[in-house]
Design a protein that fits this description.
The complex is a heterotrimer of chains A (295), B (278) and C (344). Chain B is 77% helix and 0% strand. Chain B is an all-alpha fold. The chains are: A mainly alpha (295), B mainly alpha (278), C alpha+beta (344). The interface between B and C is small, with 4 and 6 residues.
Chain lengths: 295, 278, 344
C-alpha cells in the first residue's frame, strides 16, 4: 500500500509527510504535537515518574527495606503464585477456544465470541462479588465448603479464581483473529501427509501462532499480577497470607507509609515497563514474520 | 451450538469446543448468574429502594458523568495523539507509541496512588493547582482524571490502525477535485474515522464505568459527592448486605451488557466500512 | 492406482455443488477437471482426497471402497492452490514433514530421510534452496516444493488444485511443460483442477469438463476440442461465433425460424470478397496484426464476428477496416436451440 509513496519519503518522514496532499503545515504539526505530547506527558508519563520518585524519596535504604520486609515478600510470592496458575489455565483455554472457533464452522459462534469477551466489560468488583456469592460463607457452596473445611473466599483459591476471571479473554482474543486469518490449509496439508491431530497441532499450528500466543501471555500476566478490584473483594486483606502486591500497596498507603507503598508500587511499575518492552518486541517480531509472508 | 460442517478433516472439534464451553460456564457464566439469582431474593420494592437510594443515585450520576467526560476528553486528545503517531515523525515517537499502552500494563492501584500524589494539596501539580482554586484530588474532578488515564489507550489503539490504513490517495483525490485541507478532513477523513472514534469512545466509557482501583485513592469517596458505584458494592459487601450489593451489581451488569452489544454493533459497522474501502 | 467415483453428491447449505457424479480415473493417467469457478471441480478433488465428505456416493481406490477411509490413510498427494507450505519450516523440513510424522515403527532413519528429501529436491531442481524458507521463494519455486512435499510420502495418487493458478503467465507455461515431463517419468495417477482450457488441453491425457456440479463431457483433449458434446463445452473451450438458423436437408441455413444454433471457431470462418449461397454479409471493424495470425473483428446485421487467419491470407485479401465482405463457415457444429445436438 505504501509501496509507491515510501520510495519518495525522505529519511525521517512518514509517508504522509512525503506527499503534498497529506502533508500538514509546520504550524498545524506544531500545534497537534504540542497538544498531544503535553497531554501524554501529564496524564501518562508523570504518574510513572512519580511512582519512582516517591519510592526513592527517603533513599535507597528505606526503599530496599520496604521490599524485603516479610509481608512484602509474602505479597510478592502470592502475586507470582496467582499469575503462575491463572496464566497457564487461560492459555489452555485460549488455544482451545481459538481452535474451535477459527478452524470449524458451527452455529452460535458469534455468541460464543461475545461471551468470551464478557469479563472485559464486567467491573472487576463484580467479578470478585460473584465468587463471593458462589463460594462465600453465605454463598451457594458456603456451608458445604465450611463443613469440609475448604476455604476459597478470603484465601488463596479465591484470589486465583478472581485473577483467572479478569484475565480470561486475553489469549483467546489474540489468537482467534490470527488463526482465522491463517485458515486451515496448512493443517489440511499436514493431515494429507499423514500427521495425526496432535502432530499437526504441535508442529504446524503452534509454531504459526507463537507470537500471538506470546503476546496474549504477556498481557495476561501483566493483568494477573496487577489486578486490584476483583482480588480486593475476595482477599479479606489478611496480611502475610492473602495480600497480593497491589493489595499490599493499598494497605501501606492507607497506613500513611507512603515511601513503602511507592516502593512496592515501583516494582509493579517496573513490571509494567517490562511488559511494554516485551510487547513492543513481540509486535516487532510478529510484524517481521508477517512481512516475510507477504513478500 | 450446532455441529461442525465442512472442514471436518481436522480433529479436536468436540474436545476444544467442549472444554471451551465448560470452562466458560464454570469461570464466567455460572458465577455471573449468581449475581442475578441473589438479587432476585430481594422483593421488587426492596430491590427498587436499594438501587434508587440517594447514595446509589449520586454514585450513578458521578460514575456516568465522569466516565462520559473522560471518554470525551480521550476521543479528542487520543485522536490527536493517534494522528501525531501516524502522520508525523518526531524524536521519541517509538517510545511514545509503546508507552500509550501503559494504562493497560500499569496496575490500577499503582496508577491510583501515583495520581493522588500528583494532585494532592502538596502534590506535584496539586501544589500549583489548589492555590488557583482548582481542587482535583478527593473531588469528582479527581475521578475524571483517573478515568482519563485508564481510557486513553482504548481510543488511540482503535483510531491508530484506521488512520494507518487510510491511504493517502483518498486525500489526494479530494485535493485534485479542488477541496481545501479542512474540507478534506471534514468530508473525507472524519467520516472514515467515525466508526473507530465511536468504538474507542464506547470502549473507554465502558471500561471507566467499572473502574475501581485507580479511582478510589484519588476520589476521596465522600458519600453523595465522590463515591463511585463499584465502591457502593464494596461498602455493602463489607456490611454483609449481599443482596443489596448484588442489586447494585445487576444494574451495572445490565449497563455493561448493553454497552458490549453496542461495541459489537459498532465494530461490525466499522468492519463493513473498512471492507468497502479498497 | 485407479480411482472410481460413484454417484457422488455434495451440498453446502442450500447449494448443491455436485449432482450424483460418476467417473473413472484410469491408472497412470493425467486427468484435468476443467470448468468455470463454482462448477464443483475443487469439491470433487477434495472429496477424492478425503478432505471433504460426500453426502452420498462411493469412492473406490484400486477397486476398494475408500469412502470412509481417513485422508491420512488414503495415500494421496495433494498440492494446494496456494501450496500451504509450512511457513516456519525450511524447504527441506517441508519436504521431510511427511516422513517425520510417520509412526516410529515405519519411520526412516535421519540419514535416509536426508537422502530421500535431497533426491526429491534434486528432481524438482531446488536442492540448492533446501535451507530457505517458503517466504524467500518465488511462486514457481514454492509450487515445486509443494510438489516435492506431496511426492515424498510416495502417494498412489497425485491431486493438484489449480496448480498454476497463482503464477504469472511465463512461469505457468514453463511449469506446465515440466509437470508433464515429471508425470511421464513417474506415471502416478494424477488429477488436476483448472479453469484454464489451454492448460487442460496442453497438459492432460484426459479432460473432464464440468459445469454446475455435473459432467458435460469426458474425452481426450482432441475429442473434447474437436467434438464438443454440448454448447457449454464448445464455448468454454475457446472463442466461438454463433449463428442462428435452421436445419434443412441436413444443411444449416442462417436465418429462418432459428431453431438451431451453429457454433464456429474464429479460424473456421472464411472471409471472401464475393458472396456465395448462404454467405453472411459483414463489415470489417478492426484488424489486429500480432504475430503469424491476424484477428479480425467484423460487424454483421445484428451481431459481431471474430475471425482468425494467417497474416499472409489477410494481406492477399487486403482487408481493412470499413471493407464490406462475406463470411462463409468452413466447418460448423450445430446444436438445437433446445433439444438434442447434432453435428455436421
Amino acid at each position: 500500500m505504501a509501496g509507491g509513496s515510501s520510495r519518495l519519503a525522505k529519511a525521517g518522514q512518514t509517508r504522509f509527510e512525503a506527499r503534498e496532499a497529506t502533508r500538514d503545515s509546520a504550524l498545524v504539526k506544531g500545534i497537534v504535537l504540542t497538544l498531544s505530547l503535553v497531554f501524554f506527558a501529564v496524564f501518562l508519563l508523570l504518574p510513572l515518574v512519580v511512582v519512582f520518585a516517591e519510592a526513592l524519596r527517603k533513599g535507597w535504604d528505606t526503599y530496599l527495606a520496604a521490599l524485603v520486609e516479610p509481608d512484602a515478600l509474602s505479597a510478592i510470592k502470592l502475586t507470582l503464585t496467582a499469575a503462575l496458575i491463572a496464566v497457564p489455565l487461560n492459555v489452555v483455554f485460549g488455544v482451545s477456544a481459538a481452535w474451535a472457533i477459527a478452524k470449524f464452522e458451527f452455529r452460535g459462534k458469534a455468541l460464543l465470541v461475545t461471551l468470551i469477551d464478557l469479563p472485559f466489560s464486567v467491573s472487576p468488583v463484580i467479578a470478585g462479588l460473584c465468587y463471593v456469592l458462589v463460594f462465600g460463607a453465605q454463598g451457594w457452596f458456603g456451608s458445604w465448603l465450611a463443613a469440609n473445611d475448604i476455604k476459597i473466599i478470603f484465601a488463596v483459591p479465591g484470589i486465583v479464581l478472581a485473577t483467572v476471571f479478569v484475565t480470561f479473554p486475553f489469549v483467546a482474543r489474540e489468537l482467534i483473529p490470527l488463526m482465522e486469518a491463517q485458515g486451515t490449509e496448512e493443517e489440511e496439508a499436514a493431515t494429507v501427509l499423514g500427521a495425526s491431530g496432535w502432530q499437526t497441532f504441535w508442529r504446524v499450528t503452534i509454531p504459526n501462532i507463537k507470537w500471538g500466543l506470546m503476546y496474549g501471555i504477556i498481557l495476561t500476566n501483566a493483568r494477573a499480577m496487577g489486578e486490584f478490584g476483583a482480588v480486593s473483594v475476595v482477599s479479606g486483606h489478611i496480611r502475610g497470607f492473602t495480600n497480593t502486591m497491589p493489595l499490599h500497596v493499598e494497605i501501606l498507603y492507607n497506613e500513611y507509609q507512603f515511601a513503602a507503598a511507592f516502593a512496592v508500587a515501583s516494582l509493579l511499575a517496573l513490571l509494567a515497563l517490562v511488559t511494554l518492552a516485551l510487547k513492543t518486541f513481540v509486535e516487532w517480531q510478529a510484524e517481521r514474520a508477517h512481512k516475510e509472508i507477504e513478500a | 451450538m450446532g455441529i461442525a460442517k465442512g472442514r471436518n478433516v481436522l480433529p479436536g472439534f468436540g474436545l476444544s469446543l467442549g472444554f471451551t464451553l465448560a470452562y466458560l460456564s464454570l469461570i464466567v457464566l455460572l458465577p455471573l448468574s449468581a449475581v442475578f439469582l441473589k438479587s432476585a431474593t430481594l422483593s421488587g420494592a426492596a430491590f427498587w429502594d436499594t438501587i434508587t437510594a440517594p447514595r446509589a443515585m449520586a454514585s450513578y450520576r458521578l460514575t456516568f458523568m465522569a466516565s462520559f467526560g473522560a471518554a470525551l476528553v480521550n476521543v479528542v486528545f487520543g485522536s490527536l495523539l493517534a494522528w501525531a503517531l501516524v502522520r508525523y515523525s518526531f524524536p521519541g515517537k517509538k517510545i511514545v507509541d509503546a508507552m500509550v499502552d501503559l494504562p493497560f500494563a500499569l496496575p490500577t492501584a499503582v496508577a491510583g496512588i501515583a495520581l493522588t500524589a500528583i494532585y494532592a494539596k502538596n502534590g506535584w501539580l496539586g501544589a500549583w493547582l489548589e492555590p488557583m482554586g482548582l481542587k482535583v484530588a478527593f473531588t469528582p474532578l479527581g475521578v475524571l482524571v483517573a478515568l482519563i488515564f485508564i481510557g486513553l489507550p482504548f481510543v488511540v489503539r482503535t483510531v491508530q490502525p484506521v488512520l494507518e490504513d487510510l491511504d493517502a490517495e483518498y486525500e489526494e483525490a479530494a485535493a485534485s477535485l479542488g477541496a481545501d485541507r479542512l474540507t478534506t478532513l471534514r468530508l473525507v477523513v472524519l467520516p472514515t474515522l467515525l466508526p473507530a472514534l465511536l468504538t474507542g469512545f464506547t470502549l473507554a466509557f465502558a471500561r471507566a464505568l467499572g473502574e475501581y482501583g485507580s479511582v478510589i485513592f484519588i476520589a476521596g469517596n465522600l458519600p453523595l459527592v465522590s463515591e463511585i458505584t463499584p465502591l457502593i458494592i464494596i461498602t455493602k459487601l463489607e456490611q454483609y448486605d449481599y443482596a443489596g450489593a448484588t442489586a447494585i451489581a445487576s444494574v451495572m451488569l445490565i449497563v455493561s451488557f448493553a454497552l458490549l452489544l453496542a461495541i459489537n454493533a459498532l465494530q461490525a459497522w466499522a468492519g463493513r466500512r473498512a471492507a468497502g474501502m479498497g | 492406482m485407479s480411482i472410481r467415483v460413484e454417484n457422488i453428491t455434495k451440498t453446502f447449505g442450500g447449494f448443491t455443488a455436485l449432482h450424483g457424479l460418476s467417473l473413472d480415473f484410469p491408472h497412470g493417467q493425467l486427468t484435468a477437471l476443467l470448468g468455470p469457478s463454482g462448477c464443483g471441480k475443487t469439491t470433487l478433488l477434495r472429496i477424492i482426497a478425503g478432505l471433504e465428505q460426500a453426502d452420498a456416493g462411493t469412492i473406490l481406490l484400486e477397486g476398494e471402497d475408500a469412502t470412509d477411509k481417513h485422508v491420512r490413510e488414503r495415500q494421496v498427494g495433494f498440492v494446494f492452490q496456494h501450496y500451504a507450505l509450512f511457513r516456519h519450516m525450511s524447504v527441506f523440513e517441508n519436504v521431510a514433514f511427511g516422513l517425520r510424522v510417520k509412526p516410529r515403527s515405519k519411520r526412516l532413519g535421519e540419514a535416509e530421510i536426508r537422502k530421500k528429501v535431497m533426491a526429491l529436491l534434486d528432481m524438482v531442481q531446488l536442492a540448492r534452496l533446501a535451507d530457505r524458507f517458503p517466504a524467500q521463494l518465488s511462486g514457481g519455486q514454492r509450487q515445486r516444493v509443494a510438489l516435492a512435499r506431496a511426492l515424498a510420502v510416495e502417494p498412489q495418487v497425485l491431486l493438484l488444485d489449480e496448480p498454476f493458478g497463482a503464477l504469472d503467465a511465463k512461469v505457468r507455461k514453463e511449469l506446465r511443460r515440466w509437470l508433464r515431463q515429471l508425470h511421464d517419468e513417474l506415471h502416478i495417477t494424477s488429477i488436476f483442477v483448472t479453469h484454464d482450457q489451454e492448460e487442460a488441453l496442453e497438459l492432460a491425457d484426459r479432460i473432464v469438463v464440468m459445469n454446475e456440479g455435473k459432467i458435460e463431457q469426458i474425452g481426450t483433449p482432441q475429442e473434447v476440442y474437436d467434438h464438443p458434446a454440448t454448447p457449454f463445452v464448445y464455448s468454454f473451450l475457446g472463442t466461438s461465433n454463433i449463428l442462428r438458423g435452421d436445419m434443412a436437408d441436413g444443411k444449416f441455413r442462417p436465418g429462418g425460424n432459428a431453431g438451431s444454433l451453429a457454433y464456429i471457431r474464429p479460424h473456421e470462418l472464411m472471409v471472401t470478397r464475393q458472396g456465395g449461397p448462404d454467405a453472411i454479409a459483414a463489415t470489417v471493424r478492426r484488424v489486429f496484426e500480432f504475430g503469424a495470425l491476424s484477428r479480425i473483428e467484423l460487424a454483421g446485421e445484428n451481431q459481431s464476428y471474430e475471425v482468425e487467419m494467417p497474416q499472409a491470407e489477410r494481406a492477399s485479401l487486403a482487408l481493412q477496416a470499413g471493407d464490406a465482405v462475406f463470411l462463409q463457415p468452413r466447418r460448423l457444429q450445430v446444436f438445437a436451440a433446445d433439444g438434442p445436438d447434432y453435428v455436421i
